[in-house]
Amino acid sequence: MNGLCAYLITRDHHLELPTPEPYLITHGDVGILVAETDVDRFALAEAELTPDSPVVSLIRQHDAVVRAVFATEPVLPLRFGTMFTDRRAAEQLLSEHHDALRERLAEVADHREWGVRVTARVSEPPIPPSTQNMSGTNYLLLRQRQLTAADQARREHAVAAATVHLGLAEHASDSTRRDRPGLLLDGAYLVRKTNEPAFHAALDRLATELDAQGITIERTGPWPPYSFTHLELAGAHA
Amino acid sequence: MDNGKGTLADVLERVLDKGVVIAGDIAVNVVDVELLTLRLRLFISSAQTARELGMDWWVNDPFFSPHAAGRAEVTGTEQHAGLAQENAELRARITELEKAPNQLETGQS
Fold first, then answer.
1. Is the distance from CB of A66 to CB of B5 less than 8 angstroms?
2. Of A9, A63, A3, nearest to A233 (Cα)?
3. Rounded to whole angstroms, how far apart are CA atoms A112 and A75?
4. 3-class SS string, B55-76
5. Which of A15, A74, A217, B84 has CA atoms 20 to 30 A from the CA of B101?
6. Model-level pTM greater than 0.90?
7. B49 contacts in A (CB within 8 Å)?
8. Structure ipTM
9. Residue A118: which of A185, A27, A30, A202 has the closest Cα?
10. What pLDDT, in 10s, does the model give residues B42-97?
């Protein structure tokens, strides 16, 4: 069965894409990029998973299409696997949400997303070998000191994560962070291109400062604004 | 500090977890993204694959890897690895035993 696989929403404009598909379905100023796809291809999602399995290559393809358009135009990426039954359904969605989409596209225009991960390097102090001859009381005192130190480190880490997040958010138009075990910070920042030098300078400065505390900062990007779509479009189908 | 386009894990996280959602019957999502994300995470969490994908942050996290602390001290020989593991096991036991004196103090006061 064939359907229209939808990748992203962008402005109505002439796209320089190397292939006739995907193509843009437009309404007013906005368009949705689609490609005729055999829906069964997505059934492979239930198949085996390896770094080069069909589902992973479909996901990479989605990202590649989003990036290709993002290179020249503002985009709102769609959730992977979104399908329209036909052209009319896509046009209907665009007409129902035209103004909201145009507004959101204007907000992400000239912006790129950067990902920042903050991690603490593991440095648990080893127990001195002399503990074998230690009295129970001394041993417990030692352990108490170690636990206090670990508690202190946790507090310092929380402060460091907040410092990074607030320091970077200052240079971003929008920011978001989420909790992930093992990471002090998993943040995403929507940065105006003209603010990127200031953003990266702040990031470099923070990385140097925190390196002394055993904290590492990693950045990824630039990304299309995946983390800043903030939209759930309800289609009222008559 | 690393600079990069991001690992496969970063791509998966964004393409699957993020993006505009179209609800209702005007469009359908043919992929159970939640299930797929879950399955991909499980698949990725196979340690060897994860390291190749650059998603091995938990390897050094004592919460997820009880022997992580030992690993940091290992210099590579099997003897060291054995000692480190024993060390980690002992520490876990200590943590258990540590609770006892505290309870005792509370009981006395």
1. no
2. A9
3. 10
4. CCHHHHCCCCCCCHHHHHHCCC
5. B84
6. no
7. 51
8. 0.80
9. A185
10. 665 554 455 555 555 555 555 555 554 444 433 345 555 666 777 777 777 777 77
